[in-house]
Write a structure and sequence with these properties.
With 363 residues, this protein is α/β, with parallel strands linked by helices. The protein is 42% helix and 21% strand. It has two domains: 177 residues, P-loop containing nucleotide triphosphate hydrolases (Rossmann fold), CATH 3.40.50.300; 171 residues, RecF/RecN/SMC, N-terminal domain (Glutathione S-transferase Yfyf (Class Pi), Chain A, domain 2, Up-down Bundle), CATH 1.20.1050.90. The protein has eleven helices and 14 strands. A six-stranded antiparallel beta sheet has the order 2-1-4-5-6-7, with helices on one face. Helix 4 packs across helix 6, helix 5 packs across helix 6 and helix 6 crosses helix 7. The radius of gyration is 22 Å and the shape is globular.
Length: 363
């Protein structure tokens, strides 16, 4: 998918903006604080329903404005279909349109426009808590498995009901049996889908990580189901954990506790990666996910790279840019200046400059 028109209103300090990006690389430069990241935030918001910096009401809306507005028009690679999406967000409520029709759920917008984002906080995918890694898996499944979302919603509803019952500390065996059954019925296939998805990323991650971090040896992805799946069914694990769960008031086993990790052959014993290695590993995972999306959907997601120059050294910037130049993805890349490695590529990048809240195309 290639965004052909992007309109922004009341996004942080940016003036009302209309851009016509190139189908390949789009370089957005400007001084620190000029608003480069705000452009990527707006695209991320349209694709994910949230900013990667936090809540919409915490500064994403221009001071004094009631709401922000983001509109995008893009062409699908397969078949050339033109699509349009718009989102108006007050920080508390929102309204969206997709192809001229109002949408009832943000998920409808998120399903239409896919974007993979690498920004300064992305190292948390590797070095942070499990929630971001579960979200990574679920984003991929949401876009490539039609039955994933109903399954995920069924599990989330059962988990909410079981936790509410546990908090009462009432040992109502019949009701707990009901929600244990629901959790197991949704949780077993949910875990299987996540496992298959992660397995599907393995070959791609192995190749990309070998290019980005050759000194660490082969990369391996390992899935942790959230219970001892090799020994117990989820139904049995829930039953065994019941007394403990009643004592704590929450469900301690299941896919909501799932996780995964990246191990390297030359890092035995799961040694902690340096911050730079964690960033490159996270980027390799995100690009492997983008490749997997392209293989399943026959088109690439939009790739958003925020401030790559401050996150990676020149050698790794060059490797990343060469990787991107070899593919068909539309890329938005921000920085205080053009990466030195860009001059080595015949990428035909479109260039934009941000200054005093205005984004202008650079001839």
């Amino acid at each position: 998918m290639h965004i052909t028109r992007l309109e922004l209103r009341n996004v942080r300090r940016l003036e009302p903006t209309e851009l016509h990006p190139a189908p390949g690389l789009n370089l957005v430069t400007g001084a620190n604080g000029a608003g480069k990241t705000s452009l990527l935030e707006a695209l991320h918001l349209l694709a994910y329903g949230r900013s990667f910096r936090g809540r919409v009401r915490d500064g994403l809306i221009r001071t004094g404005a009631d709401a922000l507005e983001v509109f995008a028009e893009w062409t699908e690679t397969e078949g050339g279909r033109v699509r349009k999406a718009g989102l108006r967000h007050t920080g508390q409520s929102w309204e969206g349109r997709l192809d001229g029709q109002f949408v009832a759920h943000l998920g409808e917008l998120c399903a239409a426009l896919a974007a993979v984002t690498f920004e300064p906080g992305s190292h948390a995918l590797v070095s942070g808590g499990g929630e971001s890694r579960r979200r990574f898996l679920d984003w991929g499944l949401f876009h490539v498995e039609p039955d994933f979302l109903p399954l995920w919603r069924r599990y989330a509803r059962a988990l909410k009901q079981r936790n509410a019952l546990l908090k009462t500390r009432l040992r109502d065996t019949a009701q707990l049996d009901v929600w244990d059954f629901e959790l197991a019925e949704a949780g077993e296939p949910l875990g299987q889908q996540r496992q298959r998805y992660l397995d599907g990323l393995q070959t791609r991650l192995h190749r990309i990580a070998a290019d980005f971090l050759p000194s660490l040896g082969a990369a391996t992805l390992t899935y942790q189901a959230g219970w001892k799946r090799d020994e117990l069914s989820l139904a049995d694990a829930l039953l065994l954990a019941r007394d403990r769960d009643l004592a704590t008031g929450h469900t301690s086993v299941g896919p909501h506790r799932a996780d995964w990790r990246v191990d390297y052959r030359e890092r035995p014993g799961r040694e902690t990666l340096s911050r730079g290695q964690a960033k490159l590993t996270a980027l390799a995972c995100l690009l492997a996910q983008a490749e997997h999306f392209a293989a399943q959907r026959m088109e690439w997601p939009v790739i958003l790279l925020d401030d790559l120059g401050s996150e990676l050294d020149l050698a790794h910037q060059s490797r990343v840019l060469h990787y991107l130049a070899s593919g068909q993805a539309q890329v938005f890349l921000t920085g205080t200046e053009a990466p030195a490695a860009l001059g080595q590529l015949d990428a035909g990048a479109a260039k934009f400059h941000v200054e005093q809240g205005r984004i202008n195309a650079v001839p």
